[in-house]
Amino acid sequence: MKKLINQEDKIVDEMLDGMVRAYPQFIRRVEGFDVIVRAGGSKGKVALVTGGGSGHEPAHGGYVGKGMLDGAVAGAVFTSPTPDQVYEAIKEADGGRGVLLIIKNYTGDVMNFEMAADMARDDGIEVEQVITADDVAVENSTWTIGRRGIAGTIFVHKIAGACAEAGRDLAEVKRVAGKVIENTRSMGMALDACTLPALGKPSFELAGDEVEIGIGIHGEPGVCREKITPVNAIVDKLLGKILAEGIYNSGDEVAVLVNGMGATPLMELFVANRHLNEALDSKRIKVYRTMVGNYMTSLDMAGFSITLLKLDEELKTYLDAPCSTPALVQA
Amino acid sequence: MSARVYECLKYIGEKIIENREYLTNLDREIGDADHGVNMARGYTAVIEKADTDNPDIGGILKKAGMTLLSTVGGASGPLYGTAYMEAAKVLAGKESITEEDFGKALESAIAGIQKRGKSVKGEKTMLDALIPAFDAYTQRIAEGGGLTDGLECACKAAEEGVEYTKTIAATKGRASYLGERSIGHQDPGATSAMITLKAIRDFIKG
């Protein structure tokens, strides 16, 4: 394993320090905690707090700033943060109008965030939560823990963030976040697994001509393994699974996110996006806005995911609203 | 006696740390390859921060639970943290443990895990080791066995439980995303639960 690190158990700490030094105009670190909050605080508005394991950079600290998040908690690599850290983020981000937790649907994340929410409620802070579960690779069933939250969560950060920035109350911000979640679906694939610093070897093995379809963002294996094909066919496969949900239909307007997993050249993401747009055109689904880049990564995994968000006028307004964060600046 | 409880926690920690790579490799097959790393980090902190002078066994276990909760992360942190804290409630104020106390503490720990994880037996989790272990323990004690006999039976049942996890698909935790593909693999959480019980048995046997 070759990595640009000093000590494996210091990675998160050193990364957060480096991030804050790069963007002091947007963010600061809560001393003694793995928590990033807005440099200028969040007084007088509903606060959005999220978090998760590290290794998904720029998620989530990169989306803290005006128009998006108020606090982000970084756990160990691919490991949900602990309740005491989340509790600190809630207290620090709270601007007096309540806190909305944006939780990706993983057993650990949900447990740790819910325990922290209970602690904060005991202090009299109003806390609500939404759970993102956009990954269609995982079958939804009442007998399982449900779908994973992956890159589509970025749309929740952006749109609920704009809603909170506009001064709306907690119930309204939660409603809008819920609407984004209902209308967002994603699916990803990998060309190669990622290497966890603590482990020193790839999280799963793929032969030279194999790809893994339906991967998550934690190096966990996907739903099936197959021979590699040209990217257009891969895009068709991922998109086909998303469209089979039946929520994106002819005449609809969508936002599109083509998300790199960390080690995918932008060149390849653009090639994928070209065909994705063609395919949506042919189905008369109108692309209102496209985002291509590394928005929610999985360390050095090679691969990408596709996310669609069905838009209405309300969501378009919030999607277009300005934001200034380390990872997303919009005038 | 309470000093012995601390020594026992330390012994559990050493066994978990010894099995860091093993647990992580099991998790690599069906999860996200961090179970051993996270548990080892947690027990390192438990050993460092233990309340060694506290005569109250409940107090020692509560501290251990809170330490795991704030250092392990993932799903295992809240689950093992809750298990110790629930066991601590049963043992609060006690300066020694009878075989009956141990059974009640284990029962309470399991109930805590079930509630926190919203899970039952047969979902390929730590409960598949712990619930059979508790049943075997209780039965042996009812037959007139002592703590050591009970723990022998508990460990044997936990071992069988771990084997059983290889035959079923996960419906809870990160392995559940694999569905049927998780069959054939041993559950890391059930394995760490078995290692914990075996460490307690071996420590008591001396």
Which terms would index this structure?
heterodimer, A: 331 residues, alpha/beta, Rossmann fold, Hypothetical Protein Tm841, Chain: A,domain 3, 6-stranded mixed β-sheet, B: 206 residues, mainly alpha, Serine Threonine Protein Phosphatase 5, Tetratricopeptide repeat, 9 helices
Describe this structure in words.
The complex is a heterodimer of chains A (331) and B (206). By secondary structure, chain A is of the alpha/beta class. Chain A is built from eight helices and 14 strands. Chain A has helices at 11-22, 83-93, 107-122, 153-165, 170-182, 231-243, 266-282, 313-320; strands at residues 27-29, 35-38, 47-54, 71-77, 99-104, 127-132, 184-192, 210-213, 224-227, 253-260, 286-293, 302-310, 323-324, 329-330. Chain A starts with 10 loop residues before the first helix and ends with a strand. Chain B is an all-alpha fold and 206 residues long. The longest helix of chain B is centred in the middle third of the chain and has 19 residues, at 99-117. The A-B interface holds A 9, 53, 75-85, 106-108, 111-112, 115, 137-139, 143-145, 148, 196, 198-199, 203-204, 216, 218-221, 223 and B 24, 28, 30-34, 37-38, 41, 69-79, 116-117, 171-174, 176-179, 181.
Summarize the entry for a quick read.
The complex is a heterodimer of chains A (331) and B (206). Chain A contains eight helices and 14 strands.
- Average pLDDT of chain B, rounded to a whole number, is 95
Strand order of the biggest β-sheet of chain A: 1-2-4-3-5-6
The largest pleated sheet of chain A is described as: 6 strands, mixed
What is the helix fraction of residues of chain A, given as a range? Answer: 25-40%
Largest sheet of chain B: none
Unreliable residue stretches of chain B? none
Write the CATH architecture name of chain B. Alpha Horseshoe
What sort of overall outline of chain A do the alpha carbons produce when their principal axes are compared? globular
CATH superfamily of chain B: DhaL domain
**Structural class by sheet pairing and helices of chain A:** alpha/beta
Q: Write the CATH homologous superfamily of the largest domain in chain A.
A: Dihydroxyacetone kinase, domain 1
CATH top level of the largest domain in chain A is: Alpha Beta
Helix count, DSSP H or I runs of 4 or more residues of chain A: 8
Number of strands of chain A: 14
Low-confidence stretches of chain A: none
Provide the succession of SSEs of chain B.
Answer: HHHHHHHHH
Count of separate DSSP helical elements of chain B: 9
